[in-house]
Design brief:
about 325 residues; mainly alpha; 13 helices; flat
Length: about 325
């Protein structure tokens, strides 16, 4: 009897686990999978009736409006991601390794910034750089001109600026967490061996932060592909992205089948990018683990054999020490 009890307990535990998993799975299917299935079904349902068909995809994908929206979406998303990566990396390096008053408060503000809605940032840019904004107002007051020189927020450049401004903290947050894990001894050893600030960044800091940089960039890319509020609030009428095209077809034109086709394409594009991100992240993590050097020799420059190695880099060393004390 004692021998059969453990064998019987296994199936019972499996059934209990399945019962506990059933409610969340059912809720997920009702809230997410069912609406998604409705969108996919509508996308293959012709307007004139009949059975499922790929004709709606053929019609929508052949239109110039869809091709323009797809090109705008990809170009703006790629440009905003690149801008957010460069700006986020620079700001994160300054906050993490260059000691200055208010550095910790600024790092805390990055967390708060993530909770801001995207339209709030767009409205702030309109107040600053809009046709009736502060910058143009100062220009007209000083020069007496009828109009200010800045009128770009209603163009793709304005959308790009708004998205870079809004999504940069999404890159900074994982980078700051990664920089906090960099050991101060590595920075001090690299500086004492003669490495300059940029060489320390390139050989010590960036290899440790590369997975976080890739994660932040992939997140920003997916978010930019699906961004709707920024494009809408900038008033860029000539900038039509895939989410804006979905809105136009569904709300303005009443073409629900065409809207569902564009929505499915947008979903497929986002899922494909996410899968690519997971693949790149896995390979990056493995490569970083194989290449990670020993702490004492991680940033030894090639010219330290001269025996004239300078002192540690003050900014990086002080920044690392400050983070270590905190």
């Amino acid at each position: 009897m004692a021998d059969r009890t453990p064998a019987a307990a296994g199936p019972r535990r499996a059934r209990t686990a399945a019962l506990w998993a059933l409610p969340p799975v059912a809720a997920l299917a009702l809230v997410f999978l069912y609406p998604l299935a409705l969108v996919v079904r509508q996308s293959v349902t012709p307007e004139n009736g009949g059975g499922p068909s790929t004709a709606p995809y053929t019609v929508v994908l052949a239109t110039a409006s869809f091709r323009d929206a797809l090109a705008n979406t990809v170009l703006i998303a790629a440009g905003a991601t690149l801008g957010a990566l460069l700006l986020g990396l620079l700001l994160s390096l300054v906050i993490a390794f260059v000691p200055f008053p208010g550095g910790r408060a600024l790092a805390r503000f990055v967390d708060l910034f993530l909770a801001f809605p995207s339209f709030l940032i767009t409205l702030a840019l309109l107040f600053l750089y809009g046709t009736a904004g502060i910058a143009n107002g100062l220009w007209t007051d000083v020069t007496g001109a009828a109009h200010g020189p800045l009128d770009f927020l209603h163009t793709p450049w304005g959308v790009l600026l708004a998205e870079v401004t809004y999504f940069t903290p999404f890159v900074m947050r994982p980078l700051l967490a990664a920089f906090a894990q960099v050991e101060t001894a590595q920075l001090e050893a690299a500086g004492s061996l003669g490495a300059g600030p940029w060489r320390i960044v390139r050989t010590v800091i960036l290899p440790e932060a590369l997975p976080s940089l890739a994660a932040g960039g992939a997140l920003v890319l997916v978010l930019c592909l699906n961004e709707f509020g920024i494009v809408l609030f900038t008033g860029a009428k000539d900038v039509v992205t895939l989410p804006v095209l979905v809105y136009s077809k569904a709300i303005l034109d009443g073409d629900y089948t065409g809207a569902c086709v564009v929505a499915v394409v947008n979903i497929v594009l986002s899922v494909a990018l996410y899968a690519l991100y997971r693949t790149v992240m896995a390979r990056t993590a493995r490569t970083a683990a194989r290449r990670r050097p020993a702490p004492a020799a991680s940033a030894a420059p090639a010219d330290v054999s001269t025996g004239n190695a300078p002192a540690p880099t003050p900014a990086l060393a002080a920044g690392g020490a400050d983070r270590a004390r905190s």
